[in-house]
Automatic annotation (TrEMBL):
<protein>
    <recommendedName>
        <fullName>D-malate dehydrogenase (decarboxylating)</fullName>
        <ecNumber>1.1.1.83</ecNumber>
    </recommendedName>
</protein>
<dbReference type="InterPro" id="IPR011829">
    <property type="entry name" value="TTC_DH"/>
</dbReference>
<dbReference type="InterPro" id="IPR019818">
    <property type="entry name" value="IsoCit/isopropylmalate_DH_CS"/>
</dbReference>
<keyword id="KW-0560">Oxidoreductase</keyword>
<dbReference type="GO" id="GO:0046553">
    <property type="term" value="F:D-malate dehydrogenase (decarboxylating) (NAD+) activity"/>
</dbReference>
<keyword id="KW-0520">NAD</keyword>
<dbReference type="GO" id="GO:0000287">
    <property type="term" value="F:magnesium ion binding"/>
</dbReference>
<keyword id="KW-0479">Metal-binding</keyword>
<dbReference type="GO" id="GO:0051287">
    <property type="term" value="F:NAD binding"/>
</dbReference>
<dbReference type="Pfam" id="PF00180">
    <property type="entry name" value="Iso_dh"/>
</dbReference>
<keyword id="KW-0464">Manganese</keyword>
<feature type="domain" description="Isopropylmalate dehydrogenase-like">
    <location>
        <begin position="5"/>
        <end position="345"/>
    </location>
</feature>
<comment type="similarity">
    <text>Belongs to the isocitrate and isopropylmalate dehydrogenases family.</text>
</comment>
<dbReference type="InterPro" id="IPR024084">
    <property type="entry name" value="IsoPropMal-DH-like_dom"/>
</dbReference>
<dbReference type="InterPro" id="IPR050501">
    <property type="entry name" value="ICDH/IPMDH"/>
</dbReference>
Length: 354
């Protein structure tokens, strides 16, 4: 297979630490997987770059990224020094928008060796398909009136095209799995966009008569993720609902530090972008406490997307082997550092290949 070219953007805070881990895992894997040839190219864009230059990424950044097979991102945000709306619109959201990454795919399942905080979790394995380009994150609104009676407005724009695209992706994915799609809604008459969301869901469902469907209000769905996560297969959600559900899903797995995500460019015109669900975690940055599994599992999603299915499986196997041995960071009840977990995963990749 041809060499794959990956643009690595560690970003800020623990993004830098977990990116170093995941790169090491990828490089180790390339030494034992004959088919896997990877070129990793680093770009140190982010908050430090902003402090030096006044911009999160240089002007040519998006064009540069278009020359890669995939973009691998750590996390963005240094809220103590730069307001989040500057760092996020200047990098994370800019990349999502300008590379047309309109789908955000976020799996959640029981990982061997990682204890869920639920008392008696049944085995669960579901994927959230999050609409990633509009909805509650639409660029329409702002403070429209100043003074004592200030008014801030956020328009949640739902287009037929983007809504249907997320739903069709969810149905196609369900067909390869347990054939069930749950729609995260809020159609009890309060949020105007949601009856539209429901209508599109019902229409799309007609094209997939073999797939079971259900619609659950987002508030109840959040509760069910805690009380019966095993009931879900594919969940399709709007941008903000999907954002919140996937931190919750990460927590139910054991920690948001292990949750992966893929931001997909559906038509393959531009590279897709892969990043963990978590952020830059300034509260633990620089302390070797960050769980690298979210970033490493994300690397597995990236390899899977690029057609390296075997290499991807090996990463997941290595993660579960190491967690089963109890080599884990503190967020999932262990006493090991970022580096120790990374080394153990790399060691397993080498020893299991012999
Ligand atoms: P966060 O995800 O960074 O942290 C939330 C909590 O989870 C913290 O207590 C943190 O220590 C813990 N945590 C997160 N990742 C962990 C890991 N790998 N191992 C162990 N513990 C982990 O969310 P936040 O505190 O709301 O945001 C911090 C900054 O990150 C903000 O600037 C925010 O905007 C940004 N952010 C960026 C992204 C991204 O770039 N994709 C995602 C979310 C938040
Ligand atoms: C995520 C993050 C981002 C989002 C923020 C940092 C803009 O929380 O990737 O889940 O809300 O999409
Ligand atoms: Mn989030």
């Amino acid at each position: 297979m041809a060499k794959i070219k990956i643009a690595c953007l560690p970003g800020d805070g623990i993004g830098v630490e977990v990116m170093a881990s995941a790169k090491e895992v990828l490089q180790t894997l390339a030494t034992v997987e004959e088919d896997l040839k990877i070129e990793l190219v680093d770009f140190n864009w982010g908050s430090d770059h902003y402090i030096e230059t006044g911009e999160m990424m240089p002007e040519h950044a998006i064009d540069t990224l278009k020359g890669f097979d995939a973009v691998f991102l750590g996390a963005v945000g240094n809220p103590a020094l730069i307001p989040d709306h500057i760092s996020l619109w200047g990098m994370l959201i800019k990349i999502r928008r300008e590379l047309s990454l309109s789908l955000n795919i976020r799996p959640a399942r029981v990982i061997n060796g990682i204890q869920s905080p639920l008392h008696s979790p049944r085995k669960f394995d579901f994927i959230v398909v999050r609409e990633n380009s509009e909805g509650e994150y639409s660029e329409s609104g702002g403070v429209i009136h100043n003074g004592v009676n200030e008014i801030a407005v956020q328009n949640a724009i739902f287009t037929r095209q983007a809504t249907e695209r997320a739903m069709r992706f969810a149905f196609d994915l369900a067909r390869k799995r347990e054939s069930k799609v749950t729609s995260a809604t809020k159609s009890n008459g309060i949020v105007h966009s949601m009856p539209f969301w429901d209508r599109v869901f019902q229409e799309v469902a007609k094209d997939y008569p073999d797939v079971k469907t259900e619609s659950i209000h987002i508030d109840a769905l959040a509760a069910f993720i805690v009380t019966k996560p095993q009931n879900f297969d594919v969940i399709v959600a709007s941008n903000l609902f999907g954002d919140i559900l996937t931190d919750l899903a990460g927590a139910v797995m054991g920690s948001i530090g292990i949750a992966p995500s893929a931001n997909l460019n559906p038509d393959g015109r531009f590279p897709s972008m892969f990043e963990p669900v978590h952020g830059s975690a300034p509260d633990i940055a620089g302390q070797e406490k960050a769980n690298p599994i979210g970033q490493i599992w994300t690397a597995a999603l990236m390899l899977d997307h690029l057609g390296h299915l075997n290499a991807s499986k090996r990463i997941i196997e290595a993660i579960e082997e190491v967690t089963k041995q109890g080599i884990k960071t503190a967020d999932v009840g262990g006493a090991y550092s970022t580096r120790e977990v990374t080394n153990a995963i790399c060691d397993y990749l080498i020893s299991s290949a012999q």
